[in-house]
Design a protein that fits this description.
340 residues; alpha/beta; Aminopeptidase; 2 domains; 5-stranded mixed β-sheet; 29% strand
Length: 340
């Protein structure tokens, strides 16, 4: 069984209640988490039994240090989620950066009001989770990914927890902060459902759905080389990119080929899916046969991510520095005598 700590805050300033406290108090003490990427993943993963420890923090220096002090005393959880109220927010916000800064427009609940100060000498601290990879799945509510947790006690709490995990060399323990707007903009029930979805994404490795374009010409297939300055520079691939939320695979590959080459193409359904793993995520690569509708293949002025293309025969086994699992696509085509 996995263990998680979820913390909220008591009311502060002129607020008579704090939605984060209400979420924590009514959130279940145990959950069964299901893989949210089960339809994309190559192999099924078992559900996870989750024990939820809950805590309401005071809105002051003591509250901001409560979890970090427990970590320094040797307590551990498999994950930590701090939640708090953002009165100026319209949507829930997943915070991915803790600023090394305190600037209080109002006093905290102990009367402390620091106008400008750093928290430590370590600089800003980032959340280690691949949060941007979570957005390819639909959420139950609209939300934002943010790098601005403010400069009040919420940010201070996240910072102190991340700093303690760093100091204790517990970098593998994920910790993040979620801001919720006032209850009139997001009910406790909707906020709790959203928090449940976050927990599922935290405990299961993300699967990114990616499309790659397969072009044939005179019995040869095309691959493209990533240019210098791009991620995976120098590697050869079937060009394409990730499928955005609410986007079909066909729409995605048409968009990607226009963005990366300036080529207008039509596309057919995927001929198959190939899988490989990166450090933080898994990739599901869907290969989409393409037909050129409008393009000058020799004009590189509109190319944004590649610096060369190559047309290869299926029986050409000369080495290429392939990206990911793209080489396996060629092997499959060769084994199945696929010729477009």
């Amino acid at each position: 069984m996995a263990r998680i700590l979820i913390t909220g805050f008591e009311p502060f300033a002129d607020f008579k209640k704090n939605i984060s406290q209400e979420i924590v108090q009514q959130f279940p003490s145990s959950l069964i988490l299901q893989d949210p990427w089960s339809k994309l993943r190559q192999h099924a993963m078992e559900s996870i039994d989750l024990d939820v420890e809950k805590m309401v923090l005071t809105v002051d220096e003591q509250g901001s240090s409560t979890v970090s002090n427990l970590l320094e005393e040797g307590l551990q959880w498999d994950a930590i989620v701090h939640i708090g109220l953002c009165s100026s927010c319209d949507l829930p916000r997943i915070e991915t950066l803790a600023q090394n800064r305190i600037e209080m427009r109002i006093p905290d609940n102990s009367g402390r009001q620091i106008l400008s100060s750093t928290i430590s000498d370590s600089g800003d601290l980032s959340v280690i989770l691949p949060v941007n990879s979570w957005t390819n799945l639909p959420w139950s509510v609209d939300c934002e990914v943010s790098k601005d947790a403010g400069t009040f006690v919420c940010n201070e709490t996240l910072y102190r927890s991340l700093k303690s995990l760093q100091d204790q060399e517990n970098h593998h323990i994920p910790c993040l902060f979620v801001h919720f707007p006032v209850e009139e903009k997001c009910s406790v029930e909707k906020a709790s459902d959203f928090l449940h979805e976050i927990l599922q994404r935290m405990f299961f490795r993300p699967v990114l759905s990616v499309v790659g374009g397969l072009l044939w010409r005179d019995g040869t297939y095309m691959v493209a080389r990533r240019k210098i300055g791009e991620l995976h520079a120098g590697k050869w691939e079937f060009p394409g990119g990730k499928v955005e939320k609410n986007e079909s695979k066909i729409s995605a590959i048409k968009r990607e080929m226009m963005e990366e080459f300036g080529w207008k193409v039509s596309a057919s359904p995927s001929i198959g899916t190939w899988y490989h793993s990166l450090p933080d995520i898994e990739i599901a690569l869907h290969i989409m046969p393409l037909q050129i509708e409008l393009a000058d293949l020799n004009d590189q002025t509109l190319w944004t991510s590649h610096d060369a293309i190559l047309w290869r025969n299926l029986d050409d086994e000369s080495p290429l520095e392939w990206l990911g699992n793209d080489r396996m696509v060629v092997e499959w085509m060769r084994e199945n005598n696929y010729n477009g």
